[in-house]
Amino acid sequence: LQVLCRYQHIWNIDLCFRPSFLAGIMQATGNKPPGMLPKRGEYMLKDVERMAKYYQVPVKISGGVLQRVIGTGTLAAMRFLTAIDMTQPRYLEPLSREFWIQFWSQHEDISQPENILAVAQRAGLSSEVAQKQLEMISSSAVKNRLKETTEEALKYGAFGMPAVVAHFNGEPHLFFGSDRLELLSSVIGEKWLGPVPS
After folding, report:
1. Can you tell me whether residue 163 is helix, strand or coil?
2. Which helix (H) or strand (E) segment is 186 a member of?
3. Which residues neighbour 179 within 8 Å (Cβ) at sequence distance 6 or greater?
């Protein structure tokens, strides 16, 4: 998320955020979180710290992170992002970034309405607009739209997140994981300038 936002103007790409429901993707593909395997989970915690430093993103890993990630629902946040995408799409990027920071850096529960409203305020939404969007998250229109974008991710071959689909030369290319950005740059014919291009 952070690095693609840094590159969108350098590579002159049309970066479109598509809220999707990760649990639905995992269930549909039979995938399991990598942290469910003890040795892989142990390695992943160290690797995330290294990646955070390399990519210069504020990920903070604390004790019990796996339980927090598994135990904290993101469905309400994804529905809120979906409602924003349907009505106020210009806020989708800053709101996505704020949700990411609150979850991965501040360790806040982004499933609670008061926290969703606080994130929306930090992303620049007025309290009236944010409240109206929050009321939309239980509507069938928002639920159906999130289901559609999740099914679309599955159609492109997603089996987890982060998943990036690059449409290039009339063909979609799926990239999974934050460490595939160099490959993405190669496919689209752009130069990789490191995680923090100047």
Report:
1. strand
2. helix 181-188
3. 51
Q: What are 198's two structure tokens?
A: 């100047």
Query: DSSP alpha helices (H): ranges in 35-178?
Result: 38-55, 65-71, 75-87, 92-104, 113-122, 127-136, 140-155
pTM for the model stands at 0.91
CB neighbour list of residue 157: distance below 8 Å, 6 or more residues apart: 174
Give CA–CA dist 18/114, Å, rounded: 23
- DSSP structure class, residue 35: G
What is the b/e burial string over 149-180, where b = at least 16 CB atoms within 10 angstroms of the residue's CB? bbeebbeeebebbebbbbeeeeeebebeebee
For the chain, what are the domain ranges? Answer: 1-8+23-188
pLDDT at 64 over 80: no
State pLDDT tens for residues 14-46: 999 999 999 999 999 999 887 778 888 788 888
Q: Which fold has domain 1-8+23-188?
A: Glutaredoxin (3.40.30)
- Coil, helix or strand at residue 32: coil
Characterise 186 by phi-psi region: left (phi > 0), alpha (psi -120 to 50), beta (else).
Answer: alpha
What is residue 165's three-state secondary structure? strand
| Tokens 């620049």 belong to residue | 124
